[in-house]
Backbone:
């Protein structure tokens, strides 16, 4: 979709472009182009976050009183698009876009004062403790136990697949505080300092060779009750609210548009190197399909996020965004691998870039492998379809 921007919006677009030209460091752009993981390296993400914080543009989605902007949905879309087109990385959303909305909606005034500024500044780096061995799609069957002991809980059990737990200083956790009722009852939402005695982290290496996910163990970990968000045993409600932001709380279409541009560059290069490339037009057909689906995603995203701009939450429609964003990115990954052909045999990203081909060619296969997980994390594609069927279509 090419939005018809009005003169004020075009002026805003120029202002964003000028800011990016002046303030986005080239080494961050280079590292982002080479990156094959969902998130760029923590240090780079935090460096870019600090630059945006100084400008007041780190979290356009947040309310102004907490450090957000009063931009219209179109301005937020323009900002996001210009950032990706300039090669900026996505800020790591775990604290900024997942936990923060929950604290704003359900946290006490003290929790807002304590946590929101530290999330914004990057002083706190959070990971998400939802999944467990035996509790993934069926999240409500989680067992990490929190037993009351005076003003504290004593926490025992483990969390699985915890992204960036090895880099985080804090974890937001769903814990079991009551087992007597339905599984969805008796869950509480706890904020835990990773430095607490009894917390340990074991790495899990993925098939792409990355260390991003972990298992986190809790052995008699003492957590103050004041670290609980909202009411005891009401955590399921807060957990679902957070998942809506995880699945559809930001603009993905501009990021995918940037990936599409890189795919088109690969196709152009391949055509120049081999005149017989795509002689049956199969690549062009798949490319056209991706472009059409991307336009549909852009419109859906703008429609849903316009509603959120009024201070609401994305709702179960966020599952539509998660489903389609994942499918489109994986389609781009697959087509990219097919286009580069034998060049993909060099799987490793080349540190500092390759002397004979653009950096992003080196990252095509690692990116493809890494992004297979997107149809599982944040809730699998099948689970998103179930949510859409039940809560959006009312089937
Ligand atoms: C790379 C990566 C990063 C992750 N990061 C985090 C993190 O930071 N924090 C966190 O808490 N979790 C994280 N997860 C965990 C993720 O949320 C779970 O893996 C996911 O919810 C699926 O759970 P499971 O792995 O137990 O699979 P299962 O729930 O066992 O599912 C196995 C298969 O069965 C299908 N299935 C299950 N139930 C149904 C159903 N009712 N209808 C149809 N099909 C069904 C699923 O779609 C899937 O294909 C991450 C996972 C990955 C792979």
Residues:
């Amino acid at each position: 979709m090419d939005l018809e921007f009005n003169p004020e919006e075009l002026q805003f677009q120029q202002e964003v472009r000028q800011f990016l030209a002046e303030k986005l460091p080239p080494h961050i752009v280079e590292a982002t182009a080479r990156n094959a993981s969902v998130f760029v390296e923590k240090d780079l993400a935090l460096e870019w976050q600090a630059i945006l914080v100084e400008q007041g543009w780190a979290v356009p989605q947040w309310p102004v009183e907490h450090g957000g902007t009063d931009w219209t949905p179109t301005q937020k879309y323009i900002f996001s698009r210009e950032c990706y087109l300039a090669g900026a990385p996505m800020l790591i959303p775990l604290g900024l876009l997942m936990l923060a909305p929950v604290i704003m909606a359900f946290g006490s005034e003290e929790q807002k004062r304590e946590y929101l500024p530290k999330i914004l500044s990057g002083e706190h780096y959070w990971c998400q403790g939802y999944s467990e061995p035996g509790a993934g799609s069926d999240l409500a069957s989680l067992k990490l136990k929190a037993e009351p002991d005076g003003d504290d809980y004593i926490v025992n059990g483990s969390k699985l697949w915890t992204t960036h737990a090895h880099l985080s200083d804090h974890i937001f956790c769903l814990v079991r505080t009551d087992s007597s009722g339905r599984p969805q009852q008796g869950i509480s939402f706890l904020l835990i300092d990773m430095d607490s005695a009894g917390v340990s982290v074991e790495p899990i290496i993925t098939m792409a060779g990355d260390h991003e996910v972990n298992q986190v163990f809790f052995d008699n970990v003492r957590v103050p009750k004041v670290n609980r968000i909202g009411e005891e045993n009401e955590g399921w409600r807060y957990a679902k609210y957070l998942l809506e932001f995880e699945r559809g709380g930001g603009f993905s279409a501009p990021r995918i548009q940037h990936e599409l541009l890189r795919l088109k560059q690969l196709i152009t290069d391949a055509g120049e190197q081999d005149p017989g490339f795509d002689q049956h037009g199969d690549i062009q057909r798949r490319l056209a399909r991706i472009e059409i689906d991307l336009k549909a995603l852009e419109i859906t995203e703008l429609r849903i996020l316009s509603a959120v701009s009024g201070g609401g939450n994305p709702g179960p429609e966020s599952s539509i965004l998660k489903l389609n964003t994942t499918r489109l990115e994986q389609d781009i990954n697959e087509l990219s691998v097919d286009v580069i052909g034998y060049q993909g045999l060099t799987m490793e990203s080349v540190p500092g870039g390759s002397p004979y081909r653009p950096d992003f060619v080196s990252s095509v296969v690692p990116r493809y492998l890494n992004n297979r997980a997107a149809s599982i994390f944040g809730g699998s594609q099948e689970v998103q379809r179930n949510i859409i069927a039940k809560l959006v279509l009312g089937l």
